[in-house]
Amino acid sequence: MLDHLDDLHADLDAWLRIPSISADPAYAPEVARSAAWLAEALRRTGFPVVEIWPTPGAPAVFAEWPSAEADAPIALVYGHHDVQPVDPPELWVHPPFEPTRVDGPDGPELHARGAIDDKGNVAFHLLGMRAHLAATGRDTPAVTVKLLIEGEEESGSPHFAALLEQHKDRLACDVVVVSDTGMAAPDVPSAVTAMRGLADAEITLRGPAVDLHSGSFGGAVPNPLHALAELLAALHDDQGRVTLPGFYDKVRPLSDRERELMSRVPFDEQAWLAGPAASRATYGEAGFSTLERTGARPTAEVNGMWGGYTGPGHKTIVPAEAHAKLSFRLVADQRPEDVGPQLRAWVEANVPAGIEAEVHTPPGGVAPCASDLDSPAMGALLRAIGQAFDTEPGDVLFTREGGSGPEADLVEHLGAPLLFLGAGLPTDRIHSPNERVLLPMLYRGAEAAAHLWRELGAMRLR
Amino acid sequence: MLDHLDDLHADLDAWLRIPSISADPAYAPEVARSAAWLAEALRRTGFPVVEIWPTPGAPAVFAEWPSAEADAPIALVYGHHDVQPVDPPELWVHPPFEPTRVDGPDGPELHARGAIDDKGNVAFHLLGMRAHLAATGRDTPAVTVKLLIEGEEESGSPHFAALLEQHKDRLACDVVVVSDTGMAAPDVPSAVTAMRGLADAEITLRGPAVDLHSGSFGGAVPNPLHALAELLAALHDDQGRVTLPGFYDKVRPLSDRERELMSRVPFDEQAWLAGPAASRATYGEAGFSTLERTGARPTAEVNGMWGGYTGPGHKTIVPAEAHAKLSFRLVADQRPEDVGPQLRAWVEANVPAGIEAEVHTPPGGVAPCASDLDSPAMGALLRAIGQAFDTEPGDVLFTREGGSGPEADLVEHLGAPLLFLGAGLPTDRIHSPNERVLLPMLYRGAEAAAHLWRELGAMRLR
Ligand SMILES: [Zn+2]
Ligand SMILES: [Zn+2]
């Protein structure tokens, strides 16, 4: 079905040469150049409306190709054109911004920073739109297609919510198609159905007014480091469950059907442990599989901990303070704003006599999101992916993303349901050296997009 | 009994003006000047043998005044002529190296760094020796008195053991009199009977090979910070006892008599908490008082802890490593070299699956030491202190020091029992700004020394 593969290759090669690292202010001109390049490519593809939207940070790109049918549904594609830093550069086999083609066991790969996250995922939509028009013989797509490709996702999307609010009317849509994820394996058509949310917290415990000499005071006054260890040890029970009262109250339980569907996702735990995880054992909430633990269950994680003397040698003190940074991954229908009060109450109740506790939870956080497995739009997505992989919609598996992005902002500000269509693979080394994309996955992504616009065009979602 | 009080005042004034801070290499010439000053003062007092003993660090001062009786016991006085740094200088009411006399509620005080720790404690021996000779009408003391005043105590006495070994023959003695401690209160004659020992350790826990993204991996792989918190929380049981198997095996239990004697030491717990401890509550091993906890019971203390992300903001990682520095205060007859194997075995047994543990215990440590309450030398000390305070030997209370110094080295290298005779008070602010000495306590110390030489001289300890 696909023509114009050479165009895709040429486009990606040019775009991936632009080091659009949003986290490093020194690369701000490159991020702007990346936005300009994408705008030009969208115009070349035929989008009649293409605009660069500035923000107080990096610019986003907006494009729109209206359907000729006035009542056609509107789909908004979300992606990002900024990329992760490349540290450490010495671990890259090929220079990160010189895209290099490598023949791998599953087909040709393209190695570069951003190859899949997220330039590859955005680029397949250009090819997909051409394929859609060619296959349907139309001049305009069967749905009005909008794209919003931001430039700060890898920096936490600090201005994204404001951008959505500012352009709410232009962005109005019936469905959001998030293209920043992937599938379970090269030969396994699958659709992401949920992303976890996030709430951060910092705990400070204070004991003596100053660091005390442990010879004179040790064993007779409370040590904040001991108190912190006891507190954090008590954050999980012996079943690996988070002990904050109320933490699980709003968690949508996994239905038997969802668990059955998740269990069909091929997952080689030993290979996973040996891969980027490089861990010696699995661990987690009793009664759940690793995929369920990372995708469908909330967690509490200590991200950092410090206090007392941490230099060379030894200093025999009872320190004045102890600190920990925590993050909580949330699942539907937990709310990030509930975590602060839950944690604060629990710390107050569990801190020993003589220790003063302070719990800081930054405002915001990220809400979890989940797709309705039985919605008409989800049906269209499954049919589109099935066709792209030459299989039945019922063979398309459901997966869940453990991480958190600005997707919840899209739901909140635009009020439209989410679909996820991405061409990444768990083995693509995103955010790591030697990021790659499997080119046949991009072709599948483009085909699925082409089918999706046709499938959605046959519906009336309003 | 005392003449020559003006000499003591003049001597202290001159000596305390020398900033002999051993921890700061910039002050090395001052530490040398302090040694030279002390040697000259000892010669002036009449000691026929006075030598400065160099070390790879700061010099020590050795002096000897042989008794005319060939079979008289030999007493070795231990002290130090270096002082603590003065940070923060802005908290000093009077400049730390301009000794200033202040009239306090308990009598005249002298404020200066080193006023009691340890120049005051050493200086009273000069006066004590003169008083001893004057009171007994002798030309030579009733015991052979040796002094070893080191210059690196506040820097951990790194060369002290080697110095003892090198001069073993010159230092031979029947009893060591440590003058680097104090008494319970101005009106409370007391003798220190024990010092705690020390063993240091560092624990490193390793989980994933690199810091992992908590969105993708959180809740499914073991987090070394969680494992460290669980480990350190389990280091004490709910009675505040250290849980290392075998840790208490060699602890000499407190006898009812010792507990009764300790309970007679006046101790205002609320004042103690409000003082340098500045703590909000006491804490510790169930069944023991605060004085017992700090003086007579071993402890495990976490001195530092770190791992993961500790910078500003948040980084949602499962960190690769977690670290803790620990120190153990030991009491007779525990041995510092036992702690490493005990800790290592316990960590191995308690670390969860998927976490690798490394326990580092530096060689050495400090052995605890304790005096025999019923030895003849202790009897002499109690009588001497009793006479200095115009009271009965049975009214002299026993106290214990929570900290650790080079005293155990003296026992080990010289094979002589320890007595403690010091004129400090818990309120003297040693190691802190505004260190002071209560001058009447120095006079009592000198009197006690004078009596002690006479009392010991009446014995034949060999
Ligand atoms: Zn991305
Ligand atoms: Zn001292």
TrEMBL record, chains A, B:
InterPro entries: Cyt/Met_Dipeptidase, Peptidase_M20, Peptidase_M20_dimer
Taxonomic superkingdom: Bacteria
Signal peptide: none
One of the GO BP terms on file: proteolysis
Domain Peptidase M20 dimerisation: 194-352
Membrane spanning stretches: none
GO molecular function, one term: peptidase activity
Keywords: Hydrolase, Metal-binding, Protease
Entry protein name: Acetylornithine deacetylase/Succinyl-diaminopimelate desuccinylase
Organism lineage string: Bacteria, Bacillati, Actinomycetota, Actinomycetes, Geodermatophilales
